User: What shape does this take?
Amino acid sequence: MTSPAPPAIATAGLTRRYGETIAVDGLTWTVPAGTICGLVGPDGAGKTTTIRLLCGLIPPDAGAARVAGVDVVRQPERVKPLVGYVAQRFAIYGDLTIAENLRFFADAYGVSAAEREARSRELLALTRLSEFTGRLADHLSGGMRQKLSLACALLHRPAVLFLDEPTTGVDPVSRRDLWALLHRLNGDGLTIAMSTPYMDEASRCHDVAFLSRGRLLAGGTPQALRDRLAGRVLALRATPLPAARPAAAAAPGVRSVQVLGDRLHLLLDTPDVDPDTIRAHVTRAGVHVHSLALATPAMEDVFVSLASSEEKEDG
Ligand SMILES: Nc1ncnc2c1ncn2[C@@H]1O[C@H](COP(=O)(O)OP(=O)(O)OP(=O)(O)O)[C@@H](O)[C@H]1O
Ligand SMILES: [Mg+2]
Assistant: This one.
């Protein structure tokens, strides 16, 4: 019998302060090896700090963390060769060409010349940058720069890849390309932990961790997180939609309302709220209701629900 693989990332009570700010607050989190895990949270939630801690780039004030089997707190230097890090602001050099950037990062990670050539060819093919190796990074499109950053972070064959908001501000086609790449890399066994502000991306991860003010609010598979809201989300199709929104938000038992395409998702305080009461309320506001029915909760609903329970806690 084989024992299950140890987790790629395991933290316990991980904490990091900046003066009065607790950027990461007692984070206890596990990422199984071989998965794609999403780190989701609003600005300032502690995503970047968490990633830097796990890459051994900054020390924690308290707590423990193991990444790829290495104790990051005690042996940060040992974890560096095992992780790849694509920073929120890409760290590639604009005044170097693609080839020069690859060479620079290979040297920085101590990749041998022979290995560097083979691995660069492989990564250039994977990212479809082979034809552009002589081009300055400053002259690449956003999507190409992002793929170059990814290639630079993978030269040394890390076991765990950290990506900090890799698709923020990237066009939809490049986002799709990046996801295809991530799936291929993950298929070859790479564990990927990425932060993202996009709920559609969170839905595509095997596991999601919601952070707010440095704390882990909830974690699990997208399905499990959505299931927690079963019976509490209604979809409202109505005209005019802009008027329906405040009317629905003011209806009793409705915690929050958000636009999802051509409809509104209403998050209810409890599954017991009667849709007919809401319908009557919205209709009184002069809105024509086409349909109001239970909906499958979306990741957006999970996010809103977590944020609103936090606000409630704060009074
Ligand atoms: N070097 C630093 N010095 C002082 N405060 C910091 C530093 N880095 C982060 N912080 C603070 O720690 C908190 C968490 O920041 P962090 O950058 O980790 O969040 P984030 O989730 O990555 O946010 P964003 O979505 O804006 O990238 C914030 O309040 C931030 O202002
Ligand atoms: Mg950040």
